[in-house]
Amino acid sequence: MSAAPRPDGQRAARSVPAAASTTGGDPDAGPERIAESATGLDMILTDAALGPLRRLVPPVSSSLRFTAALARRPRTVLGHTGRLVGEWGRIGLGRSEVTPGAKDKRYSDPAWSGNPMLKRAMQAHLVTAQTATQLVDAAALPYAHDERIRFSVTNIVEALAPSNSPALNPSAWKAAIDTGGRSAVSGTRRLVRDLSSAPRVPSMVEPDAFEVGKDLARTPGVVVLRTPVFELIQYQPTTPTVHAVPLVMVPPTINKFYIADLAEGRSIVEHVVGGGQQVFMMSWRNPDARHAEWGLDTYGQAVLDAMAAAERIAGAEQTGLMSFCSGGIITAMVLGHLAAIGQQDRVASATFAVTVLDQARGGTVGAFLDERSAQAATRASAKKGYLDGATLAEVFAWLRPNDLIWNYWVNNYLQGKPPAAFDILYWNADTTRMTAALHRGFLELAVRNSLTEPGAATMLGTPVDLSAVTVDNYVVAGIADHLCPWQSCYATTQLLGGDSRFVLSTSGHIASLVNPPTNPKSTWRTAPSDVPDADEWLASAHTEKGSWWTDYSRWVAERSGAEVPAPTELGGGGPVLGAAPGTYVFDK
Amino acid sequence: MRPASGDGPQLRTITVGGRTLRVSVRPGDGTLTPLLLMNGIGASLEVLQPFVDAVDPRREVIRFDVPGVGGSPKPVLPYTMMTFAPVVAGLLSRLGHREAVDVLGFSWGGGLAQQFAVQHRRRCRRLVLAATGTGSFMVPAHPRVLSKMLTPRRHRDPDYARTIAGEIYGGTMRAHPERAARALHAQSRLGPRRGYYYQLAAGAGWTSLPLLRLIQQPTLVLAGDDDPIIPEVNPRLMARMIPDGQLHLYRGGHLALVTEAPELAPVVDRFLS
């Protein structure tokens, strides 16, 4: 899903779902859904380097096009603004029937409809927001300009909602009365605390809501290898027998690895270990300015180092790879490298979870990523030596301001309440830096879309040709993922040479990953991935109840060799460097 | 169930009073009073590992990275010894320690330890001050040494650490300067510069001279006879001014607690037991 709503052609001003509804309120805008939109793809790296403000102010070229487009359609503009003025008049007289969309929880407090002043403020905002969106629709700009203008307009309009105002929001008043004014004090304190350090957005979780190693990242294991770039964790098998081929997990290079090892019962690691796999996890070092030169090759070599260690410890000649998001990009390039040097038989299977290799059209992200801004972003991170994770978090938040900014603005500051504790949001706030060289590497891949073209990118000195990679692969995406659109993830099946299994999970970027079988609502779809077109694939797909984790466990088991007795001792006789989750995960 | 090696140090991140700290706890068996270590300037908690390994294994040992150093996030606002001591007290509470602990302050951490012992008297049973002085008012080191302490470069640049180690740390560093870079973990850990300067600033203008008489805990002053940073006269003075103070002068330099831990840890253990 992109951050901007598409025109729906509806004009009647009776109820206003269109303008703000993609971001404003949703019936299940619980933390699960908020978390989905909170996190994401490393490809928004441009903004993270240049700062989120750049997005709020559209580029001059887009603004000029917008104005020019509207100037060519005077009648449309007059029509919209005329209707707006008329509606304003009716609102002033109290005769307007404008109501918020049923899903818009910003105005769920009965005071918004009961108090005449509040009702007018709400109605005026709703119709103005709708008109603004209609004007953007009417301009019918080309894709990239449309995305940019729509983004700015949506952000500004949503910021002006009366529900965000401490003077108007009835829940703020009620909280102040109920607590004898304490809510205002604690709200102000939270505001000062949040604004004093990046990310300068309302916190979505209390800093001590969870503890890594105790509530999160708690699957038992040991650190079996520590290099300057990563620590390798070997997890303790929980089954009497295990598959002979070890499984190495390659996490994203942004945020910490424990997205794959959240609370008990919500950990893919725990699930896969329970399925009889010998699981190894790479925990990336949180790099700093000294590591500016670590690029794609450094990270690719790290994956090879992890594979070698896993093979030695398990006494196997092959490894399975399971990668997530940007970790998948590195994994794909390592596979290309192994294919080029004739060693891809070392890889038993490869999994790409919410990974985009073909960047042809990445929604909002794609629209904002052009060569010039990519270069500017690269220069900015090169100067610092790294890309700051906290800035990236700001960018993600501004992608969905109603869910991630204004919702918490009201809760944390106006009502003075702590945000609800939710493990994914805690993980999301635990940001990491990204080295300047890796940032440059990812942006170059994205701008030129190099992985779609054989030989356009290199890894460790060899050209990468993904069609030469004949390893069996498992590709999983989330249907509501606005950062790695599932259609773009699907394209991976067409890029790789091996047999692909494509699975489409429910929900978005992160919640599609954190999808334990205990979740009664989860479903997944699958179909043979022999059609090039994603939507054609969807039409032929059938829906299965339950979680894709179960399907994956079965799939990877078929590709993990014979069952052997589980090792009694971790580390394969080599040194054990400490207990999981290791030390790198704690580096801020 | 944790694997057997799980009884090694446990790292965690704890936020107290707006400061987020990376904390390491080596569990003990509960028979001895826990020992809280306060570290030198710019040094991550890993630096103290050799000492922790040498100390009685029955003793729980707590270490932390000050803001902006090692694995703790960089501080937004500066702090002073007086405002940071309550953060440490809060940290102990969060770790579940209501009773008093023993405190060892090393170098810069020795200043914080003196402040802590006075300010949070009931949280501190015994005090060890290792290779440390009384802050701004003390018999100063040679200006050449001080100028090299003013920047975190030795923590960032292993080659530089090697060239200056003998001169500023003395003791065995004079013969084996390469061990300084290793002891400082110059390769593996680093905080942003701001962390170092805030730490420096926290000690600037601060002195424990008026505090020394107020330290009521039994105190061991541990100092080297060849420590260019802390001239020997300072520990002698401190041991005399602290009402229940005793001096242990060892042969060696500033980093001996770390580099010659097997010799010095038993001295500390004996004093605390």
UniProtKB/TrEMBL annotation, chain A:
Residues 1-33 are annotated as: Disordered. Keywords: Acyltransferase, Transferase. GO terms for biological process: poly-hydroxybutyrate biosynthetic process. Signal peptide: none annotated. Residues 103-271 form the Poly-beta-hydroxybutyrate polymerase N-terminal domain. GO terms for molecular function: acyltransferase activity. It is an enzyme of class 2 (transferase). Gene3D superfamilies: alpha/beta hydrolase. InterPro entries: AB_hydrolase_fold, PHA/PHB_synthase, PhaC_N. PANTHER family: POLY(3-HYDROXYALKANOATE) POLYMERASE SUBUNIT PHAC, POLY-3-HYDROXYBUTYRATE SYNTHASE. This is Class II poly(R)-hydroxyalkanoic acid synthase.
UniProtKB/TrEMBL annotation, chain B:
InterPro entries: AB_hydrolase, AB_hydrolase_1, AB_hydrolase_fold, PHA_depoly_arom. GO terms for biological process: glycerolipid catabolic process. Gene3D superfamilies: alpha/beta hydrolase. One of its GO terms (molecular function) is triacylglycerol lipase activity. SUPFAM superfamilies: alpha/beta-Hydrolases. Residues 34-260 form the AB hydrolase-1 domain. Pfam families: Abhydrolase_1. NCBIfam families: PHA_depoly_arom. This is Poly(3-hydroxyalkanoate) depolymerase. The gene is phaD.
